[in-house]
Amino acid sequence: MLAFIVRRLIQSVLVMLAVALVGFALFTYVGDPINNMVGQDTSIEDRERLREDLGLNDPFPVQFFRFVVNAAQADFGISYRHGRPVEDLLVERAPATLELSFAAGLFALFVGVPMGIYTALNRRSWLSKVFLTVSLIGVSLPTFLIGILLILVFSVWLGWLPSFGRGETVQFGWWSTGFLTWDGLTALIMPAITLGLFQMTLIMRLVRAEMLEVLRTDYIKFARARGLSARAVNFGHALKNTLVPVITITGLQLGSVIAFAIITETVFQWPGMGLLFIQAIEFVDIPVMAAYLVLVAFLFVLINLIVDLLYFAVDPRLRVGGGGGQGL
Amino acid sequence: MSDPLLSVRDLRVDFPTRRGVLTAVDGVSFDIHPGEILGVVGESGAGKSQTGAAVIGLLEPPGRIAAGDIHLEGQRIDRLSQEQLRKVRGRKIGAVFQDPLTSLNPLYTIGRQLTETIRTHLPLSEAEARDRAVQVLGEVGIPSPADRLDAYPHQFSGGMRQRVVIALALCVNPRLIIADEPTTALDVSIQAQITALLKRLCREHGTAVMLITHDMGVIAETADRVAVLYGGRLAEVGPVDDVVNRPLHPYTEGLMACIPTTHERPPRLAQIEGSMPSLTAMPPGCAFHPRCPHAFDRCAAERPPLFDHPPSAAACWLWAPEGARATERAAS
Ligand SMILES: Nc1ncnc2c1ncn2[C@@H]1O[C@H](COP(=O)(O)OP(=O)(O)O)[C@@H](O)[C@H]1O
Ligand code: SF4
Ligand SMILES: [Mg+2]
User: Fold this and answer.
1) How many CA atoms lie within 13 A of B181 on its CB side?
2) Which residues, in sequence order, are CB contacts of B161 under 8 Å at separation 6+?
3) Ligand 2, CB within 6 Å, residue ranges
4) CB under 8 Å, gap of 24 or more: what pairs does B237-245 form?
């Protein structure tokens, strides 16, 4: 177990270094950071001095090393556009994105899993067919279109839900939450559904496929042969085995939910990191772009690691190294 | 003789498919008496497993019982609802399947799988159920059963897992156990032990067994009576000694020709020339006639019913009471 964790940690570090390299390459090769910082009238000498001061003339490995060390301390430099430390901007925007992703994840999980179970257990029912058809539409419509359609129906026509922004938030130290006000919650509904819809259909189909697979196994047949109730067989034996692989995929999906939040945040003008990133692209605000890239990669890697550990907790075959077998 | 525990009459199992209806089991009848071990033999695809699945009500859709009836202790069980059947399964009829490696849920301890089965059928507390689980595990020969209760299936070897499976089948003392090739997936060196264990336990508890196998050697050693299936039909049924030593049906005769005489690796079924017809190409008349050395005109034209020839019965025209050939054959 320990060896496994150590191995996964080393892998994680390697992945992060690779991403850092990409982020750093952005810095170095896209545009000239000096041009972005100083005005038109700065002299060549001043520019050179600044370049020297910032260490931009140092050899590549030295610069990269400095970038990694700074990044590891959450120091990504100053935003060209906002003139403030990038990490401050991210910390300010993070709660919005994380809350949105969390709500989208919950929506995907708590709607997708029951729908998957239902469609697996009632394969022939018309409701299953409706679910599957609707989910197909959900997968094939682009996110922004779904968002715009929702806004059209629920904000423009019905006027039930706000069409943009986070609504009223409550501040807890540096964390601002929209979970505690009615306004904040209603503002969350449409963005969360928009962001979570794709994952929901994915989870539904995954749960359905896994469950059908599990229902065909010998141990389910044997559980039935032992006279266990349908409930015990379906929800005790089958569901637990279904959820083992589902945990992995769902966990990994949470990473992509955070990444995909960019589009949803743009559609709903949601003040999160994704919107910050889109605006950074418009202004070629390299420090923000690099930081966002590294941060999203970090979240991916972190979630991956947690999922692997969860897997360990659920599946006893991984937990115990197979020992204890007693031959005859 | 006592009333039969299980009575199967003219059982037919159909699989409706796109290419038409496949009849996997066709007009099979047999009885199992309390405490008796009935061996069911036949080549792969002969319909053994489907017969067992029909009895326990676990045919996989689209498979269904298309005709016939099944009685357990005088009660008809082939028309029960799923909920009523559930109370028969496990409680009155236990099952042991072929592969012990896949029969147990890998995510639950064997103790949990035992206690849930026990508590489904008996009004016991969790602690009482655990006591019973320990006792049953001891009976099937798991060393220090109390310590092994919280072990997961993967922590046992194949042979030990099949013992656990047997414990699960026996834990609430059913009247009948359907064992579908219980040793086929096991190492040859363990097969005899497991068969002997099953036989001993069922004798001790007075449990009847429907022992499905394609291994005539196992049948000869274990069963009281034998039913021989061919192409989804019953070829012959009778006491083991008669079927093995004085087979009536030409197919059984072919099977017996390759029963092991030494204790080397038990041979698989008969090397009778040709192979069993597939369900889609079942010949008219007697299903065995294309391979039968004794076939005559009637065999290809008319399907033989089961002719009584006490203590056995065979579905073969040679044993028709009025058949001249039968007397001829019996005399030779
Ligand atoms: N799901 C199914 N669909 C169609 N035919 C099936 C299905 N399952 C089993 N059968 C047919 O039933 C026949 C009997 O199978 P089975 O009882 O498993 O034989 P065995 O004697 O080897 O246990 C086989 O010929 C097989 O083709
Ligand atoms: S009925 Fe005819 S073909 Fe069939 S087993 Fe008897 S003799 Fe052979
Ligand atoms: Mg079989």
Assistant:
1) 18
2) B100, B101, B103, B104, B153
3) B 249-250, 286, 288-289, 292, 294-295, 299, 304, 316-318
4) B237/B30, B237/B306, B237/B312, B237/B313, B238/B311, B238/B312, B238/B313, B238/B314, B239/B311, B239/B312, B240/B39, B242/B311, B242/B312, B243/B312, B244/B216, B244/B219, B244/B220
Question: Could you tell me the CATH number of the domain that includes residue A105?
Answer: 1.10.3720.10
Q: Are B106 and B121 in contact (CB under 8 A)?
A: no
Range of the domain at A233: 87-260
In a domain, A301, yes or no: no
Closest by Cα among B145, B153, B192, B195 to B171: B145
Taking 50 as the pLDDT cut, the residues of chain A under it are 321-328
**What is the predicted ipTM?**
0.86
A218 closest CB neighbour out of B97, B117, B168: B97
Q: Which residues of A touch B154 (CB under 8 A)?
A: 316-317, 320, 322, 325
| pLDDT for A321 | 46
| Residue A295 covered by a domain | no
pLDDT the model gives residue A84: 86
Residue B272: per-residue pLDDT: 64
| B109-168 per-position pLDDT tens digit | 999 999 999 999 999 999 999 999 999 999 999 999 999 999 999 999 988 999 999 999
As given in the structure block, the two tokens for residue B137 are: 């595990």
pLDDT tens digit sequence for A206-252: 999 999 999 999 999 999 999 998 889 999 899 988 888 787 777 77
- A76 falls within a domain: no
Domain count along chain A: 1
User: pTM for the complete prediction?
Assistant: 0.79
Question: Does residue A53 form part of some domain?
Answer: no
Tokens coding A76: 């990504």
pLDDT band at residue B306 under the 50/70/90 scheme: very high
B88 close contact with A: CB closer than 8 A: yes
Provide CB contacts within 8 A for B251, sequence distance 6+.
Answer: B228, B230, B235, B236, B272, B288, B291, B292
Nearest to A226 among B82, B107, B117 (CB): B117
Contact B121 A327 (CB under 8 A): no
Identify the pLDDT of residue B186: 84
